[in-house]
Amino acid sequence: MVVGLGPGPERWLTAEAQALLAEATDIVGYGPYVDRVPPSAARRHASDNRVELDRARHALELAEAGARVAVVSGGDPGVFAMAAAVFEAVEAGPPAWRGLDILVAPGITAMLAAAARLGAPLGHDFCAISLSDNLKPWAVVEKRLVAAAAADLVIALYNPASKARPDQIGRAFEALRSAVGERLVILAKAVGRPDETIIRTSLAAVDPREVDMRTLVIIGSAATRVIERPEGEAWVYTPRRWEEGA
Fold it and tell me: What distance in Å separates the CA atoms of residue 142 and residue 127, rounded to the nearest whole number?
């Protein structure tokens, strides 16, 4: 079972995910995600963040031996997460692994949680891009950013910065400024948690130092709009209808 835990709050853990976790004999995942799984009698196998394939192979070995294994991911397991690693391990692994029953249980991914907080910024065409270059060259990341901006898509940026990659978010903003000039930027930090912070800014004014690995970055399209309110935070949305010159 490959289970999405959502962005953090227990209320965003789906009923299916809760049921599968309760059935598991073994929980496998990145340490902080394993720590988020509700207490149970299951054996817990925590590992570091950059050993996804090793983690997937370990889970498959446990399942082949008869365990009922839950591989956990934050957000949705199919979005830059463990579901792809499990199937990559299956494809390259022993033929017997292809006979295992594998269930992927969806979760709320970070861009959906952030979008819900803002209003509806993903109301028209959008894309998601990971800024991590651990598994692909930075030149590919930059090429995709520029192409998405040229297509005037709303862009959700995952994995925007880390201690090992502190400068890439600034380079990403610069590439987007060169491609489209000005756009609305939203920095959604720790959405759904007690220290949640939403910063509304622009490509011209955004401070890359405000971005960390807990931040989901949304770059608006030319059509993305802001509705100011007399009290409370403004709403942000992208109209469903495309208009020439919007």
Answer: 14
Q: How far apart are CA 155 and CA 121, in angstroms?
A: 10
Place of tokens 């789906």: 14
C-beta of residue 64 within 8 angstroms of C-beta of residue 98: no
Strand ranges of the sheet holding 69-73, from the earlier edge strand across to the other edge: 43-47, 26-30, 69-73, 2-4, 104-105
pLDDT in tens, 62-111: 999 999 999 999 999 999 999 999 999 999 999 999 999 999 999 999 99
- Compute the distance between CA of residue 157 and CA of residue 145 in angstroms, rounded to an integer: 9
CB contact at 8 A, 105 and 2: yes
Q: How far is CA 27 from each of CA 30, 35, 77, rounded to the nearest angstrom?
A: 10, 10, 14
Cβ burial, residue 175 (10 Å; 0-12/13-18/19+): middle
Rounded Cα gap, residues 234 and 119, in angstroms: 9
Report the alpha-carbon distance of residue 23 to residue 235 in Å, rounded. 40
User: What is the reported pTM?
Assistant: 0.91
